[in-house]
């Protein structure tokens, strides 16, 4: 059998032809695929990624555009040691190779001071309050000691000499002043007469006598009109000698007749 007849009529030749056609098809498909990938990935067009850290995005845009690259900001953070708005991290890092048209992913420093919530440090020890404030990124400023039954207990919190409520958002790094209890002293003081005194003045009067406000009781619950209330009863009573730092409980009313009645009752008790 000659070769032509073998190639046309032989079953073996048919198999060989099919195998060759299959190999040719694989070659053509592979060539087309690799050509497409080469074009898509821009093979041979890689650029060296510049160092962008410490720069602003406007500078990064110019540097990257000159190399056919671009950037994407994917996150921001707050680093008080870095200027606002500068790039603090980049991916890929400096010196890496990147195809033209691909992005460099950036993390920038916040453009303003981060606001943090003030933790509730009232009625905790000074040491615990200090730790809580530092953990939030705040600092303890002036510490003022006032008479109190509870030594080293935080009684009040202030910022810029003004009371501030827990949860208030303030700039990280702010200074917070604390009013701390100094405990009951060994010195005895005389309880002042608070009868008829406006509720808003009670604290200062007691502090001047090295005493503090205890329980505050209202005959009628206030509705944003606390300044209209006055003291009509107190415990311990006026004139009593107590250790400095003692808490004085007060009863408040807007009814001035209650003050008169209480003063009359006190006078009768003194008479008998």
TrEMBL record:
Q: Which Pfam families match?
A: PASTA (PF03793)
Q: Can you tell which superkingdom this protein's organism belongs to?
A: Bacteria
> Which parts of the sequence belong to the PASTA domain?
44-110, 112-182, 185-254
Q: Which residues cross the membrane?
A: 12-34
* Alphabetically ordered keywords of this record: Membrane, Transmembrane, Transmembrane helix
Can you say what this protein is called? PASTA domain-containing protein
Task: Recall the taxonomic lineage recorded for the source organism.
Answer: Bacteria, Pseudomonadati, Bacteroidota, Bacteroidia, Bacteroidales
């Amino acid at each position: 059998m000659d070769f032509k007849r073998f190639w046309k009529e032989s079953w073996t030749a048919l198999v060989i032809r099919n195998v060759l056609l299959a190999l040719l098809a694989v070659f053509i498909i592979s060539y087309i695929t690799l050509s497409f990938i080469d074009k898509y990935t821009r093979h041979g067009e890689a650029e060296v990624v510049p160092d962008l850290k410490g720069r602003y995005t406007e500078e990064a845009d110019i540097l990257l555009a000159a190399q056919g690259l671009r950037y994407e900001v994917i996150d921001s953070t707050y680093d008080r040691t870095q200027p606002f708005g500068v790039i603090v991290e980049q991916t890929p890092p400096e010196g890496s190779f990147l195809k033209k048209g691909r992005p460099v992913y950036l993390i920038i420093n916040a453009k303003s001071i981060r606001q943090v919530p003030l933790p509730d440090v009232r009625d905790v020890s000074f040491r615990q309050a200090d730790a809580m404030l530092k953990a939030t990124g705040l600092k303890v400023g002036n510490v003022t000691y006032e008479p109190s039954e509870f030594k080293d207990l935080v009684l009040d919190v202030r910022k810029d000499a003004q009371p501030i409520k827990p949860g208030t958002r303030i700039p990280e790094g702010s200074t917070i002043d604390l009013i701390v209890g100094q405990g009951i002293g060994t010195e005895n003081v005389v309880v002042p007469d608070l009868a008829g005194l406006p509720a808003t003045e009670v604290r200062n009067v007691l502090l001047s006598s090295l005493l503090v406000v205890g329980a505050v009781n209202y005959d009628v619950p206030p509705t944003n009109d606390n300044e209209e209330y006055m003291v009509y009863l107190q415990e311990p009573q006026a004139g009593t000698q107590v250790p400095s730092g003692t808490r004085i409980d007060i009863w408040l009313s807007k009814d001035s007749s209650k003050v008169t009645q209480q003063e009359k009752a006190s006078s009768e008790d003194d008479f008998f």
